[in-house]
Amino acid sequence: MTKHEGIECGIKTGNPEAGLSCSIKDAIELTLLPGVGCLTQGRIKKNLRNISDVFSLDTDALASLGIPGEAYPLIRSRSYQKIAEEIYDWGIREGCKFLLRGVPGYPQLLEEICDPPLILYARGYPEILGKSCIAIVGTRRPTIYGLQMAQGIAADLGSRGLCIISGLARGIDGAAHRGCLEGNGITIAILGCGIDVVYPREHRQLTQKILQKGLLLSEFPPGTSPAPQNFPIRNRIISGLALGTVIIEASEYSGSLITARLAMEQNREVFALPGNITSPQSFGPNFLIKQGAKLVQTWRDVVEELPSELRQELLIKEDAQTPGKPELELLSEEEARLLQLLKEDEVTQFDKVYRASGLSISHLSDLLLKLEMSGRIRQLPGNLYVRLRK
Amino acid sequence: MTKHEGIECGIKTGNPEAGLSCSIKDAIELTLLPGVGCLTQGRIKKNLRNISDVFSLDTDALASLGIPGEAYPLIRSRSYQKIAEEIYDWGIREGCKFLLRGVPGYPQLLEEICDPPLILYARGYPEILGKSCIAIVGTRRPTIYGLQMAQGIAADLGSRGLCIISGLARGIDGAAHRGCLEGNGITIAILGCGIDVVYPREHRQLTQKILQKGLLLSEFPPGTSPAPQNFPIRNRIISGLALGTVIIEASEYSGSLITARLAMEQNREVFALPGNITSPQSFGPNFLIKQGAKLVQTWRDVVEELPSELRQELLIKEDAQTPGKPELELLSEEEARLLQLLKEDEVTQFDKVYRASGLSISHLSDLLLKLEMSGRIRQLPGNLYVRLRK
């Protein structure tokens, strides 16, 4: 792999290659400094024309950027410059890609969260970050139900062209990646360790499969071990890259609930799989649904909440692939007659339908409910009904 | 039993007894007429000073009330007068009570629905209709999960003084009545047959237990057999008598979904028990939750949606009965410190908490979520937090 490929995302900007590789090295160095987290990195990026300028600022200027005193001597002596260069060289050698904030190739949706990482390390195909992504996450100790549903929903969404993001953890995360691959979809794993660390070990093979078409991403420098505190931090990347996050199973204090909360804070959709209230693993999703997360019965429930253009594209594609519409013939004569009483472009009052139908209120309510559940009509507030375009 | 007891609800109004018993007989006769349903009965009641006057109206007047032609000769010849008298006499003899619209004792909430029955036949203690009622309904073919949950939630609500209404059907309905009785609560069964018909037969014993403190109600004249079409009709009485209806399990086209729809139309709360999406019996509740029904994890989820005075009464009673508050000591030092940063009477912005806490965003989010789940704080729209009074 040449240096050219190693920083392909940056090259597309037309920046001089040398300047960009320099910025990448300096960005790496910045992220290694103690006390300089993503928010501080963000302030540096916002206030300086070039992040490399931080290394020549005086104490007052450093302080005004919120950089803590402990970092000043390390900044002046460039203590981490050598390590940063080693990381950069290792990346180039190993085919790792660097995604830098503000440089094309850095995921757009992630720029919108309050604390995007300055740099992301990537293996695989970073260009798939341009696709529409859905995150599917959950507990590391799932039930069979949770595993099956994670796999099934991931396959359903992945096969329809949505990219599935998860955290490569044991349990639900692994099942989501696997399901997506089974559906011939593309999947992205966000790691809580360095991009070069395989964790958990049993996901070595899965990692290889993901990399064939997909992507591994981490904000942690190569070599970072999977410390427990890393995982909640990486969760914001999972939710931040996705249009919405589906919580499959999560017990009362599960990290997946944090991912859900982050998704809400990031103004993204939150979906949850309902489950029996007797199952501790369903506590989290049920709790989230109570808090406003959308209940998921099928992949359609996810697609229905996506931006309208994308939603229509996915649903139209689906309809085109469904041969014929056999279910239309399953309408009873009574149902078909009732359907005729409703319009596609105008609401009809229940009372009007009632009088025109000649049916009893309870029987009519029954039929309207059936038609609504089969997706042929919709009830609107005020007891109004419209027929849906099929 | 004396005549006096038989019409006790009416007597409380101070109406002359003779007049009321006459009205009751005429009301019964009216409900027996073909083509005269609850809506027509409602129009008659609304337009005539005394419903008995209907029997002396001319054709034009009858037509203007929406009474169909087939009924005119039967009205004029008082064809059903004798049967109505027999029903009345039977009721007095058997200790059946008659609840007549517009006469005190007729349930207030039922008056608010669009098609309340003109007369209700009651066995047991009609005065309990003055209590706050919650309906719990579901499929006749439940899973063990559904049965257990119906019984448990009914016991939890019943033991706290809420009256549990259901339809005495096999399955969930039976479990709801039983659970309420186990919790020493009072329960009301709404029948789809005459008040003198035991259906299903295996609920004979349950019926006796319900009657010890509770009530059987039916709008169908004594002797009416449990025809399938009666059940959706009686469902509106179940939802109409209750502040809210809890759907436990219901398959795709279950009558319980109709009860839920009726509850929505009647502007009552709808609650649903979530379940695994692989269970056909949980399709209905999950579907309803997607449509806006409140997900129920515990009895508290029901109580929280009740009118505020009732809610506070039930929750305060509960807190008073909970010895000490041991869980308060389970707060970690960090959580306790965080709690101090929030106020009970004023919202605090996330950002402010973040800066004051000195914690990382992800760790802080984690702690806030824990505090919210333990009911100590609440997040409000706009990323604002308040501390809840404990």
Q: Outline of this structure?
A:
Chain A has 390 residues and is an alpha/beta fold. In chain A, 46% of the residues lie in helices and 12% in strands. The first copy, chain A, has a nine-stranded mixed sheet with strand order 1-2-6-5-4-3-7-8-9, sandwiched between helices. A three-stranded antiparallel sheet of chain A has the order 10-12-11.
How does this model look, in words?
Two copies of one chain form a homodimer. Chain A has 390 residues and is an alpha/beta fold. Chain A has helices at 3-6, 8-11, 17-32, 38-47, 59-64, 72-76, 81-94, 108-111, 144-158, 172-182, 204-213, 230-241, 255-265, 283-290, 299-303, 308-321, 333-341, 350-357, 361-373; strands at 97-100, 119-124, 133-137, 163-166, 187-190, 215-218, 244-247, 269-272, 294-295, 348-349, 377-380, 384-387. A nine-stranded mixed sheet of chain A has the order 1-2-6-5-4-3-7-8-9, sandwiched between helices. In chain A, strands 10-12-11 form a three-stranded antiparallel sheet. In chain A, helix 9 packs parallel to helix 10 and helix 12 (230-241) crosses helix 13. Chains A and B meet through helix 9, helix 12, helix 13, helix 14 and strand 9 of A and helix 9, helix 12, helix 13, helix 14 and strand 9 of B.
